[in-house]
Each structure stands twice: as C-alpha cells, then as structure tokens.
Amino acid sequence: MPLERDALKRRAALFSGPAVLLLPAVLRAQAATGSLDLDVHRADGGPIAGAEARLEAGRLDRAGETDERGRLFLAHLRPGAYRLRVSAPGFTTTGQRLDLGPAAYSLEVALCAVPCESAAPLFEPRVVSLEHSTTFGEEDLRQVPRPADPWSIARDVPGVVADRVNVGGSETALQSTLVTAGDAGPGASWTLDGVDVTDPAAIGSTLLFPDVDAMSEVVVRTSAVDVRVRTPGVQMGLFLRAPDDRWHGRAHLRDAPAALQSDNLPAALAGRPFLRNRTRHVREAGAEAGGPMGAGSWLWGSVARSALRQDTFTEHGESLQTTSAAAKARLGFAGGALTLLGLRAEKVHRDRDTGFSSAPEARWRQSGPTWLVSAEDEHPARGVSLLTRLSYVDAGFRLDPQGGSAQDAYEDFRGIFRGSYQTFVTRRPRLQAGIEAASARRLLGLDHALLAGAGYARSQVSTAASWPGNRVLGLERQAVFFRTFQLTGFALPTRDEYARTVQDRVEAYAQDAMRRGRWSLTAGLRLDEQRGHGLASSVAENPVFPELLPAVSYPGSSARIRWRDVLPRAGLAWDVKGDGAVRLALSYAEYGAALGAADVAFDDPIGQPPASLTYYWIDRNGDHIVERGELDTLRGPVGSGGIDPGDPGSVRSPNLIDAGLRSPRTREVAGVSEVALGPARAGLHVAWRRNVRALWRPLRGLTLADYVVRGAVTGDLFGQPFEVGYFAPASPSRIVPGNGRILTNRDGYRQDAIVADVTFEGRSLGRRLRWRGFASFTDWREYFTDPRLAIQDPTPTDLGPLQDAGPVAAHPGGLGRDDVFANARWMAGATLSAALPARLEAAANLHAREGFPIPYFEVGDSGDPTGGAKNVLIAPHLDSRRL
C-alpha cells in the first residue's frame, strides 16, 4: 500500500539522523615522525669521531656524539624547522637551518680543520625514505590565506578531496569527509602530538576541533611505507607549538561581519532550489604563551574560541561555537625528557536542525567536551631511542531538544515537528599505550635504520537515543485516504535505543631501512589483532503500550569479531647522482581497515535505531498526543522498524554477523621520481590501489536470483531518452522477519584506483619568496567480477550504480547533504608567499578541482517491503554531470 510505504519512508528519515554517528572507527594513532642520519667528516672525506651535534627547534633539542665512523642517528623527530650545530675539537663549528618532514633523512656535514682557510661546504639533507606527504610548517599556516581549520589545509594536498568548501569561515565548526584515491573516508586518521584523536564512532572524523592557530606543523600523508600507518586513508598529523628560548606570547582576532559577506551563486542557479546556508558573522580569537622553566624544561599554553552565526537553508538562524584550552610542559626525567599534555575542547551548536521542517522547540542543542591527557617519555638507552606514550581521551556529546524530554512530540499536517524531539547521548573514551624503539647499526656492509614498536588501545562507545514524553510519535496526515476513513495519520510507539560496545586492538611492527651507496631498501611488517563485542544493556518498555514494545535486557554479544592482519611493506630507492638531486623509488604496501562500533553492534537488538511499530492513528480528543485507545487496531500494524514485529521482546536481533568476517584490505604499488634544481624541487608520484573484501550488509537469505523487475522509469534526460527498470523480491515470504541483514564481506567485488600527482616547490630572493604547487589526476572505479555474489538487488540507484568499471564517489550524507557525492578526477593548487619590507607579508592561495558529481535519478515505487521507493539512476554514469 502506498500509505504504508509513506510511513516506512518517513520513519527511516526520522531514525537515520543520530544513527549515522555510530560508524566504524580508526583505533590507532598513526603519528608522523622523522629521523636524521648524520655523516660528519673532514674536508678530505675522513670521518670525525666524537663530534658533538645538536639539533634545536625552540626549546626542543636533541644532541649526541658521532661514533668511530663519524655517524650519529637522531630518531623520533617531529616535523618542522630546526637549527643544526656541529662541533669537534680542532675543527670550526658549523651550523645550518634544516626543514624536516615526516621522513628519514641523510645529511653530510663537512668540518674545516683549524686554521680554516675556506668555509666548509653546506649540504642539503637527502630524503631516503618512501613517504608521500605534504608538510605545512608554521610559515604556511600563518601566511597562506585559508580558513583556520585542518580540512581546508588538507584540501591543498594532492589527491585529497573534501566534501565541504569552507569559504571565509562558512563551514566553521563543521567537519568534512576527507576522500583520497581508493578510500571514501573510513581510512582517515587523526593524531595530535602523536595522540590518537580519531573518533571511534564517526567515520574518518576527529574527536575535537583543533585550534590551527596553536599548531606549528600539520603533516598530511596519503601513501606510506611506514609500518606505523595501518589504514589507507588521509593521515592527519597535528603538532602543537613549543616555546622558544625566552618567554613570549601572541594573540589573534579575526572578525568577518555580514557586511563582508558576498553571494557567489551563479545567475543560472538563482531561480532554482539550492540548499545552502548564508553566513552572518564569523569571529575567531585566541592567545598563547610559553617559555623556559629551567634547564631543559618549559611550559606552554593556549586558549581559542571561534563563533559562527548563519541563516540555514531551512530558513532560521543558528550559532556554532568551539572553544579550546591546552597546556603543555616538558621536564627532564631520568636522563630523558617527559612531555605532558592536557587539553579541553568543546563544540556548542544551538538551534541545530533535526529535519527540514522543525519548530524551535524541536531543534537540538549540541554540547559536550572532549578531555585529553597524555604523557610521553623520550629516553636514549645505549644507542637506542625509546619513545613511550600513555594517553586517555574522554570524549562524547549530547543532542538535547530545546523542548525538553518531558514534552510529547508530533508532526503536524504541514510536516513541521513540534513539541520536542529525540535526545541523543554518546560517550567515546579511549585508553592507549605504546612503546617504540629506533636505532642505527652497521651490519653486513649496510647501514641499517631499525624501528620496532608495540601498542594497545581500548575504545568503548555507548549510545543512547530516546523520544520524549510518552515515547509515541504522532504523524498527522491530510491525504484523501485519511480523510475518507477519518484517520488523523500514523502513530509510532517507540522503544529507546541503548548500545554499548568495546573494541580492543593489539599491534606490533618492525622495519629495517637499509642503505648502501646510492641504494636504499626498506622492508617492514605490521601485525594487528582487533577484537570487539557488544556489552550488556537494557531498555524499558514503552510507557503507553508496554504490551506492544516490552522491556528488553540484552546480555551482550556471544559472538566476538576478531580480525588478524599481517601487513607487509617494502620499498626500493635509487639516488641517481648520489647527491639527492635525482631520486627514483618503487614501493609496495598493504593497508587494513579498522573495526568500528557499528560493525560490533550490528547484531545488537536494542543497539540499532529505536524500535518502532506503525499504526493508523485516530486522535479522538484532538490534543496531538497519541494515547491508549487511539490506535487503529482493526487494521493492525502497517509497519515496523528495528525489531521482529512477531517477537518484539526478543533478545536476538534479526541481523547477523558472518562468523568468517574478515578485515577489508587495500594493496598499493607506487612509484616516485624527484628532481632537485637548486633551491627548487619537483616530484611525480604514481600509485595503483586495489580494495578487496569490502564490507556490505545484504538481506539474509536472498540472492540476485530472488529479485524480479517490477517496473521502469522512463523519460528524457538532457535530450537523451532513458528507460531503467527497478526490482523487488519475487517472494516477500523469504524475507527474514524484521528485514534481517548480515554483515559480511562482498565477494566478487573490488575497487581499483590510479592516481598521479605532480608537485613543485621552492624559494628564491634569499628565501624571501616561496612557492608551492601541485596537479593531481585520479581514476577510481568499481568492478563486479561475479555479479551473483556481489549484487543482491539489481536496481541501479544513486548510492549503488552497479555499473561494472563505473566510477566511485564518496557519499557523506547528513541533513541537506543527501545529494552530495565527493570525487574529483583532477585537481590543482598553488600558493605563493613573500616577505616584504617593513616586516610586511603577502600571500596568495589558488585551488581548483573538478565539480561534485550529480547522479540524476527518478523515484521508482517498486513495492519492495524492505525498501519501498527507490532512487533509480537514469544518468549513464554516476558522474556524467557535475556541479
């Protein structure tokens, strides 16, 4: 019946908003650090033993003495600008500035014997590792004009596509999905000073909104041989500033009132509906201070606040505010250095939309702080650099309806929610510990840079959602059917949602970077075990209709997901001329996926969107509240969600997890060519990726052979006729009660991606002028090698085109963003910054990319009891048209 499908479609919209927050997570800090291998020798090439080398960056310093071969290895170096000083008895002291990224470097240092008749030559550090990364130093972050958020920074990285475009703060306090070749966002990872701040429930997101003005470097990696990297997505490494040799502070204030806002909507789109917000006021302020506290010790702190006021596309005003406070200290400890970090960050979102039409009392107020504490110890021990870290992040947030939890909620005849709305509360703490050792050795005629580490992480996610008042929703309707039979609309008795999951991960990794002459060989292996299961939880019965939705006590999952991954890495590099001017490299890497809260809670009977039953409603007293005696029991239930309607009190979910579920896998082969031309460098990076064993959630017990065509959508699209069929199960009786699904691997399916990046950067005019640019091309496609295994419902839709060798695009979703698909076959960008007289600075930033795909579709009413109306794709390809 069309009316039943209308109820099901509306209910899916009501329950899908908060549910998308329970998604797979990345559980591991994938921090980017570098190393420096010094070779100190005389002008005639002989080694200098016992030379003292000191590497300084503000109050951060590393020092040591060269061995009998004149070598010194410094590990665990955070990216940034350093000052190197090398001295030895009987030789002049030399010093130079080094800009180091998250890579392994080799540097020759020549000292001139006293008396020195001519200055010793200065050599540039040579990259000997195989990382593909972009480092934004303090100069980039301070000078280049871009919004002060990390997603806008990542947009200036080759091959990284953000699903939002932040112009002048228009997307302040809103997170973007970061898409790169072969990864739609789940593989993104975030670290802050090495601490994992990736959200364990919201895919590819961060638990906090970083204060970019407090950062000294942001490192973005899209490909790595580094065994510390687990996932294939964008790796965001954020590094807080450290103080200099003296106390100092700084403050900033940026203000953009409505008078500075402009409208860039093209005239061709002015007369069309176009979902967009209009910025009214953006204000950002912050301050920081720090300095030395004694020998080898320092203290630093920062505070920041940003605020955005805007008119939403749903035609009301809203405000977003983020606050951040951080404190950092470094102390001498047992011959090493102990770094302590504490941080509090919070986002407050007032009048957040719950739907396209909501009264003020049915909008949310979002709040909830994130607390972070960590201790990191760097300790040298007999030629080995030991790095130990212990951290705890306590994060979460809540969505509270402005009408409160006591008021009943209903949707009026005009489709406007009134009274109140759903409450959503989540907590996401994580405890993490790890140890890593790095050392350099000479063995079998090869120089070895050795790295080994192990770690443990535990994340717990709890999610609770409940409708207010009597927990029965009334949906008023005025269609002919309802007026004819004197029905008010639909009544949806609901039961709360409450899910608790725990995920544990144990890791171990080892890597050896070997060098001899112009050749470098890197080999590494990463071992991961991820485990997860649901914890016990319970929900109360519906207070008005307890016989329909009784209380349920879930004892927890008897099944435990366990993934064991062995991820090899290998790379070979050739320094063609031996001076770092021309370098060629080839690498192979395998990446694994992360086990997330949604996967673990998939078979939790009360951990999915709130259970509900749908009846016709007769509002006998006209008070807009569903009460006992107002359900149309004669016609009986016309729909259900989240439960088996035949057994609503069951502690068994209609959903199952495949006992043989395996971790998805990404394989990558990459080649690099780099050329140095004086102070400028250019590079070419080409990579091929293949994704296999993708996760999907088909209906239980149905295959491609169980679907039959139910009709077709026809018409013309831009002058081209189309006729596309849509399908439904031939026998609804084969559908598992409650529309049960199974979480399993998608056999017979894969994705392939090819990406090519060209980069260039350099300085001139005595380092006063700096430029950087890139161009990138990506071809990302999906393949159905066995449609019988990889396809269930053959209806091509906007979310599932089902086109062999067709393009792939990420679909972030969210209110007003169901039509947003993110991919770009080409993109390019350039930045230019200059130091001018009178301590003035000038900079420009240009970014261009292919537009967002527009997958045109027509709605087909297939009569499918599990899906109803479907968005049938009518364009030749998902990205045939772009905006």
Can you tell me about this structure?
The chain folds into two domains: 2-32 and 244-368 and 378-700 and 736-786 and 814-852, TonB-dependent receptor, beta-barrel domain (Maltoporin, Chain A), CATH 2.40.170; 34-130, Sandwich (Immunoglobulin-like). Helix content is 4%, strand content 50%. The longest helix has 15 residues, at 2-16.
In short:
This protein has 883 residues and is mainly β.
Fold blueprint:
Elements (H helix, E strand, L loop, with lengths): L1 H15 L17 E9 L9 E6 L2 E6 L5 E7 L2 E8 L6 E7 L3 E8 L14 E2 L4 E5 L1 H6 L6 H5 L6 E2 L15 E2 L9 E4 L2 E2 L18 E9 L11 E6 L7 E9 L21 E17 L2 E15 L5 E17 L2 E17 L11 E4 L1 E13 L2 E11 L1 E6 L8 E2 L5 E2 L4 E5 L2 E14 L2 E21 L5 E5 L3 H5 L4 E5 L3 E20 L2 E16 L2 E3 L12 E3 L6 E15 L6 E11 L4 H4 L11 E6 L21 E3 L14 E2 L7 E13 L2 E13 L2 E2 L10 E11 L2 E10 L12 E4 L3 E16 L4 E16 L2 H4 L15 E2 L18 E11 L3 E10 L7 E5 L7 E5 L10
Parallel strand pairs: 1-7, 12-15, 25-30, 40-46
Antiparallel strand pairs: 1-4, 2-3, 2-5, 5-6, 7-8, 9-14, 10-11, 12-13, 14-15, 16-17, 17-18, 18-19, 19-20, 20-21, 20-22, 21-24, 22-23, 23-28, 24-27, 25-26, 27-29, 28-29, 29-32, 30-31, 31-38, 32-33, 33-36, 34-35, 36-37, 37-41, 38-39, 41-42, 42-47, 43-46, 44-45, 47-48, 48-49, 48-50, 50-51, 52-53
